[in-house]
Amino acid sequence: MDTATVTDWPHLYRPGSPASPVLLMLHGTGGNEQEITDLAAEIDPDAGVLSPRGQVREHGMLRWFRRRAEGIFDIDDVIARAGDLAGFITAAREHYRLGERRIVAVGFSNGANIALATALLHPQALDRVVALSGMYPLGDRRSPEDLSGSRILVLNGDHDPMAPLASVNDLVAALERQGADVEQVLRSGGHGIEYTDLAAARDWLNRQV
Questions:
Q1: 165-177 vs 110-121: helix axis angle to the nearest 10?
Q2: Overall domain count for the chain
Q3: 158 is catalytic
Q4: Catalytic residue, candidates 109, 133, 143, 150
Q5: Among this protein's residues, is 109 annotated catalytic?
Q6: Which CATH number covers residue 180?
Q7: Mean pLDDT, to the nearest integer, of 9-23?
Q8: Which one from 44, 127, 160, 197 is the annotated catalytic residue?
Q9: Nearest in space to 145 (alpha carbons), one of 92, 79, 204, 200
Q10: Which entry of 77, 84, 167, 191 is annotated as an active-site residue?
Q11: Is 59 labeled as catalytic in the residue annotation?
């Protein structure tokens, strides 16, 4: 794997404890690779952190893929960017000599959506995801991949206008059809990250490792 895939992509890396997983931290729209890392310590303070920067700009804000309007994704770009992220993950595993350490994506909003798209399309690169305020990212398209080895935690507010419950339920159904082990936790409220989300993420991660 070409190491330029890693070195040319702005990101942060902290090795953490070798006995702990590496959290792939994926920021939301307008975030960056630095601010999202604070969330990692809330979930597992011993974990390694790999935090790349979204490669798309929208009105000056960083994102992971293009969209045509609020809630309407450019699906071709989603698919292409998911492939790019899968390549980065694979290259980073080799570059940082992660060996068999588990990589777990933790994504918020747009970061959750690119994590889910990558898990749906490239399970060989990413098979563990904590999706915070995410939704089904592929529109009317479906992935043929076998996800029988994948484990996904889906955390959402039940009145989130940016990640409608219908799309979240479509996501869970699609993941289950493809064989993934899915846990869905709904809380009252809308878009964002609540203490209950972090508690659920910590509990789920402890059970994975």
A1: 20
A2: 1
A3: no
A4: 109
A5: yes
A6: 3.40.50.1820
A7: 97
A8: 160
A9: 79
A10: 191
A11: no
